[in-house]
Amino acid sequence: MASARVGYLGPEGSFGHEAVCTMDNVEPVALRSIADILVAVADGSLDQGLVPLENAIEGTVSATIDGLVFDHDLLIEREIVIPIRLQLLARTGVALADVTKVWSYVHALAQCRTFLHQLKATSEETTSTSQAAHEVAQSSEPWAAVASQTAGDLFGLVALASDIEDHPGNETRFVAVGRDHITPATGHDRTTIVCFQDADRPGSLYAILGRFAARDINLTKLESRPTKRGLGEYCFVIEFEGHVADDVVADCLADLQAHLARVKFLGSYPVTGEGAVDRRAEIDQARTSAFEWINAIRARVRSS
Questions:
Q1: What average pLDDT does the segment 229-233 reach?
Q2: Cα–Cα distance between 36 and 40 in angstroms, integer?
Q3: 206 phi/psi in degrees, rounded to 5
Q4: Kind and range of the H or E element at 77?
Q5: Per-residue pLDDT at 280 exceeds 70
Q6: Which of 21, 104, 167, 212 is the most interior residue, by most CB within 10 Å?
Q7: Are residues 108 and 23 located together in one domain of the fold?
Q8: pLDDT tier at 13 (50, 70, 90 boundaries)?
Q9: Same domain, 135 and 216
Q10: Within this chain, do residues 186 and 286 fall inside the same structural domain, yes or no?
Q11: CA distance linking residue 99 with residue 88, whole number of Å
Q12: Residue 93 is part of a domain; what is its CATH number?
């Protein structure tokens, strides 16, 4: 079977490159921006794109979520979570005290604000962490890059400081997006949707969330995003446990679409981690017991 062409935020040595290398039977394709990746998937140039969706320190990657919500009709097919360890990299011979400018991707710079503030060098944004390493390697200036050790090895840089992120346990969640394929249910799945309200009225978000609570569907993320149509106008990105193939999920989405909001479906896909399986099994067992209880009562209704 031919390898799937999967785009990632390049060049080689980026965290996106590390993530795509965990996938089987793929041909990695480096592109310069998240927007370029999404466009290439949408027009069929790529089979899939692997893009960063969320970082444990800095939160949602707006270029990814806004591209999926507003610009393209693509589907999330899987997620990949990798640890992020950031190094301050420079050419051999450059000392920490010599550094005048630090280059990196905007999210990486934000993940190590404290360290960079203490360093007192200016910061410059690049299209990716590995692009920052490339820029530093090509320059004769006393510059440094915030990037992975892999990027440092690839471009011949040395680490002036290691693990410079502001908080331990730093991770980034990447998602593989495609054009029209919904991944089959595994029993350990997550679904992502966007809810656009027809009108902003008191209790509207409460009514949306109540549909999930009434069905014991556990939300894993809720985020508002500006609709780009004016100040104060928002849509809601909602992630929750379960798959669109599950009857309870399908019923919930149909209820939302019919009564409360326009729903954009962004995908159902396997979850990284183990917790959701046990929680869903417990909820399903409780609901089964409840239905058995109510059916026993209804069986005692007299026929007229």
A1: 79
A2: 6
A3: -60, -40
A4: strand 75-83
A5: no
A6: 104
A7: no
A8: very high
A9: no
A10: yes
A11: 10
A12: 3.40.190.10
